[in-house]
Amino acid sequence: MVYNPIFNSDNARIFPFCTEMENEIYKSELLKLGKRIRALRKARNKTQVEFELDCKINHGDISRIENGQKNLEFYTIVKLAVALQVKISDLFKEDAE
Description:
434 Repressor (Amino-terminal Domain); 4 helices; mainly alpha
């Protein structure tokens, strides 16, 4: 089995070198970000498949991103913003749509 320090499917810490409280904060923020990305996608009447084609990200990754289960690299954040036609900062706004 390959160890992935970012996401482990058995509900292990997403960030293993953080305290439990820090880890919970990171998980919470990833979930909020995923929900904002989903809301922006749906506001544009895009399915996950259409969105996948727009941003050239694997469908499974889109699902994990929207469910707050995948830590994002900056390049991925840029691809998401471009596909959604928003500024990168808009992905982090509470009222993004």
